[in-house]
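ok trying again, last paste got cut off:
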Amino acid sequence: MAGVDGAAALVTGGAGFVGSNLVKALLAAGAARVHIVDNFLSAERVNVPSHPAVRLTEGSIADDGVVRALADEYDFIFHLATYHGNQSSIHDPLADHANNTLTTLKLYDAVKGWSRLKKVVYSSAGCSVAEKTFAEARATEETDIVSLVQDSPYSMSKIFGEFYSSYYFRQHGLPAVRARFQNVYGPGEILGAGRWRGTPATVWRNVTPTFIYKALMKEALPLENDGVATRDFIYVEDVARGLVACALRGKAGEAYNVASGVEVSIRELAEKVNRLADNPTPFHHLPKRAWDNSGKRFGSTRKARTELGFQAEVGVDEGLRRTIDWTKQNLALIQKTIARHDEAMRQSARR
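nice, full thing came through this time. structure:
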């Protein structure tokens, strides 16, 4: 990753799943300094590399004291701090606002006049832009019009962040690039990471790690609406490369899909996971989630491939194999974080 060697980077949310994989990629590429800011709301300290180039600030980027302590000393900022994810945001929209929207606004307002800064990369979400449909999907383009109809405060917050990215670029010249993630999966995603956020989604937050863990435990995979929904699954190391590509070659003011461009149904994902984990247990069929109308979607890779030279390298079968191997090696850690929330989940289920 020429261009990263010797650079200084700030990574908000750098202890999280995607953030920690990005930090490792930056270090491997020769970054001289990586400053992580994370409040560990949905992250674990084990994900922070023990490396002389890494500095950790525990706190929210929305905290005035944390922001005031930042200095104009970074070549790149990767803004990955977020309130994870849809269901937690539905349960507590105010917490979502404080940890999603407000973080972006306070960060941008603090750094808008910095002179050393080459690029700010904002982590957005493909679900916020994709058409809400269970009919045949088409690849979501970066130029697609954003609907006012959103499924959750989380998806709205991600779009608000894009609005602020565009505004601060046009008004103040902030070199912001928007990276629209699809469904990221891979090693380092710890079920139950961080603090209880009010719903079982604190633990069972994403479909891929949930399926893998349950399959390894020989449990039934929960299949909602017969698994007809489709997603664009992209391996986390590819996402880290995509983020760096946005920083090095992305055009300020623009958005880029960080996607595989491959549409996979949730049922197909479940079948792949059960086969790779040797799980014979039949699916647990559940109804469609009432709030979730983002049925079938995948991202166009054309713009990122043409302008960034980026395309995903790890296919879903190979990515699942690697993630299953990592999960097997880290079962004790995962079970410890799940157990930390057991009583809260039991109380929540009784309400």
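cool. The CA atoms of residues 252 and 299 lie 21 Å apart. The first strand starts at residue 8 and ends at 12.
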